[in-house]
Amino acid sequence: MESRNQTTVLEFLLLGFTERVELRGFLFVTFLVMYTMNLLGNGTMISIIAGNSHLHTPMYFFLCNLSLVDMCFSSVTVPKLLSNLISNSRTISFSNCFVQLYFFMFSGGSECVIMSIMAYDRYVAICNPLHYVTIMNKKVCLSMSIASWIIGLFHSLLHTLLVYRLSFCKSNEIQHYFCDLAQMLQLSSTDIFINEIAIFVEGSLIVMLPFVIILISYIRIITTILKIKSTGGRWKTFSTCSSHLTVVTLFYGTLIFMYFRPSSNYSMARDRISSVVYNVLSPMLNPFIYSLRNRDVKIALKRVLQRKGSSSSG
């Protein structure tokens, strides 16, 4: 097996969104606001669920996992993006680039698995309600949660190690705001056939298998809902999974748009915008989607605000 050549690249240049200096201030404020809302929204969601015993159910346990991975997902890329927008230097060291690549793929892979687990949880709750407590017991939920993080870990480790074995001698300019896997493969001066096979086989499995599970779960859920005779009953049942369906549509809709389109329609600018949607916008919106469309979360949030209001007035 060929050993890894000594690379001549000591750092990479993240070209980001634009070369126009006058836009950097606007972009900095925009991403700072979005990132702050992400941390506050998801942090509040975790606190509300942890502090209210009636929310200690499988659905909200997995929602805590989703909020945590959303915070990690954006934290991998946005702080460096903000730093580059306000400084003249847009470089990232060779080692830090691989650290960013690892945690980006780790968070993305875990998010895909967690979303499929949440879909399965709703499927069991709606289609098999009498056995829900038995099937989704604490041990099963904890095992599923740990598995989602472990799968993300090994998914990321595989691709990061495969990229690390490559040499980078042609260029150090990454046409993105973070160390994107596809961009790094383009910069490689060695053969990337093994990487492409790994992306096609394992990468597709990590992204598409959870999507298939989500699709099958919601087909079964919709079939069950349509059998309910009363309109009120249908809506009440559907409302328990509508928030998750909205989140999945936003996240997977962007991924499918990015990776399942003709190569003739490829645009780097469009690619960057799509990355912002699933890496920054979607994690920011998720807690608001769940709080606005979920009666239990709204009640718990109202109680927290009332307690804070009474304690401050007292």
TrEMBL record:
CDD domains linked to this entry: 7tmA_OR10A-like
Keywords attached to this entry: Cell membrane, G-protein coupled receptor, Membrane, Olfaction, Receptor, Sensory transduction, Transducer, Transmembrane, Transmembrane helix
Residue span(s) of domain G-protein coupled receptors family 1 profile: 41-290
PROSITE patterns found in the cross-reference section: G_PROTEIN_RECEP_F1_1, G_PROTEIN_RECEP_F1_2
Membrane topology: Multi-pass membrane protein
Transmembrane segments: 25-48, 98-120, 140-158, 197-219, 240-260, 272-292
Short name of one Pfam family: 7tm_4
Main location: membrane
UniProt-annotated location(s): Cell membrane
Signal peptide region: none
GO cellular component, one term: plasma membrane
Keyword Transmembrane helix found: yes
GO function term, MF aspect, one: G protein-coupled receptor activity
SUPFAM superfamilies: Family A G protein-coupled receptor-like
Family: Belongs to the G-protein coupled receptor 1 family.
Protein's name according to its UniProt entry: Olfactory receptor
Source organism: Geotrypetes seraphini
